[in-house]
Design a protein that fits this description.
CATH class of the largest domain: Mainly Beta
Number of helices: 7
Order of helices and strands: EHHEHEEEEEEEEEHEEHEEHEHEE
CATH superfamily of the largest domain: Immunoglobulins
Shape: elongated
Number of strands: 18
């Protein structure tokens, strides 16, 4: 908390009143000077109380999907499983509520300023009521990755402006912008299918897939009693089929540019979406990158790709080989990383995507994607 020029004016007024009171022997001037001094002391106490009782509150109220956003194409049931109320994809926008919350009674005046996703934001208010105060700001055309709130400060004062305080708020992450994706099934070359093998259904494997309501004919051994007691109705365990497809996606650990990294993330997200829609599981990783999966949770896989490559977890020691026990491996590269190509060639079934003008030699059949989206 630091004084302002207004305090200097009030202090000067106090000294003048004291001097005139002493020279003119007018007693009420001393009383007026005492009131000015008390006003300064009260303002200092209020400014200190005001500064300590406010806290910053940043909240995403809703997403603003762009014209080609995947959010409009996803099933409502899948949207409900998202860890956030409104998933945000690359190119979308969002409504961010910038607010202040108070401990105890109403406070003010106050001002907040900082950056969110590269946008400078600054708001001020004369009073923060006990219910809190907020303002909505729109962020448009967001880039893939975490949306960070940086360099936020809360400025406070007293009603007369004698003192000014400022508190620095720690950096935080208000949202994660997921990569765009689209189905790539129509672009792939037709592959020979084994018509003699029927598509397996959930319910007859060994790994637990989830629970569902009890149906006539279900074995009593499959009843999940704890979940049944919690729900108030019988539910049974459902198992993943033993022949469930596992797709391994290997991404370039060192893309040459942000544009290349964005395109790699889009392609990997599209391959992930196609596999999960067909009932499969996905593993995403690469040399020096800690893999995620195998998983059927689209949101956790998209979050890994949203943080790729800078925010992707990396092992503390030397990177090991990914388990190549999936039915198919997809290699996505923009630099022809030799370790990445070697990992892909270890698989029995493999294919890949080339991003940019890179040239690769080897046994992996690649398709060129370029940097533009959609393909």
């Amino acid at each position: 908390m630091r004084p302002t020029w207004r305090l200097a004016g009030a202090a000067t007024l106090w000294l003048v009143l004291e001097w005139y009171g002493a020279t003119s022997e007018v007693s009420w001037l001393f009383l007026l000077a005492a009131w000015v001094l008390a006003l300064i002391a009260g303002s200092a106490a209020y400014a200190l109380w005001n500064r300590r009782g406010l806290r910053l509150d940043l909240e995403v109220r809703r997403s603003l999907p762009a014209a080609d956003s995947p959010a409009d194409e996803l099933p409502e049931q899948l949207i409900r499983t998202s860890p956030t109320a409104s998933p945000v994809f690359e190119g979308d926008g969002l409504d961010l509520a910038v607010g202040l919350r108070t401990n105890g009674g109403a406070r003010g005046p106050a001002m907040v300023r900082g950056e969110v996703g590269g946008h400078h934001i600054e708001f001020g208010t004369g009073m923060v009521p006990t219910t809190g105060w907020s303002r909505i700001t729109e962020l448009r055309e967001l880039r893939r990755g975490p949306v960070g709130a940086r360099r936020w400060t809360i400025g406070t004062s007293d009603p007369l402006g004698f003192f000014r305080g400022e508190r620095t708020w720690s950096d935080s992450e208000v949202a994660i912008v997921l990569p765009r994706f689209a189905s790539l099934v129509g672009r792939r070359e037709p592959r020979e299918m084994e018509a003699s093998i029927a598509s397996p259904r959930a319910g007859y494997g060994n790994e637990v897939f989830g629970v569902r309501e009890y149906r006539a004919g279900d074995s009593l051994r499959r009843i999940h009693w704890r979940s049944s007691a919690r729900r108030g109705e019988l539910v049974v365990r459902e198992f993943e089929p033993p022949g469930l497809q596992t797709l391994i996606i290997l991404v370039d650990p060192h893309p040459p540019s942000v544009q290349a990294a964005d395109q790699i993330a889009r392609l990997a997200a599209s391959e992930t979406w196609d596999c999960i829609r067909e009932g499969g599981r996905v593993v995403i990783g690469g040399p020096g990158l800690e893999p995620v999966g195998p998983s059927r949770d689209l949101w956790s896989l998209l979050e890994w790709l949203a943080r790729y490559p800078d925010g992707s977890p990396r092992p503390s020691g030397p990177a090991g080989h990914l388990p190549m026990n999936g039915e198919e491996v997809v290699v996505i590269t923009a630099t022809a990383d030799p370790l990445l190509i070697e990992e892909g060639e270890r698989a029995r079934r493999r294919r890949g995507w080339l991003v940019g003008d890179v040239t690769v030699s080897g046994d992996i059949p690649f398709e060129r994607a370029g940097l533009e989206w959609p393909l």
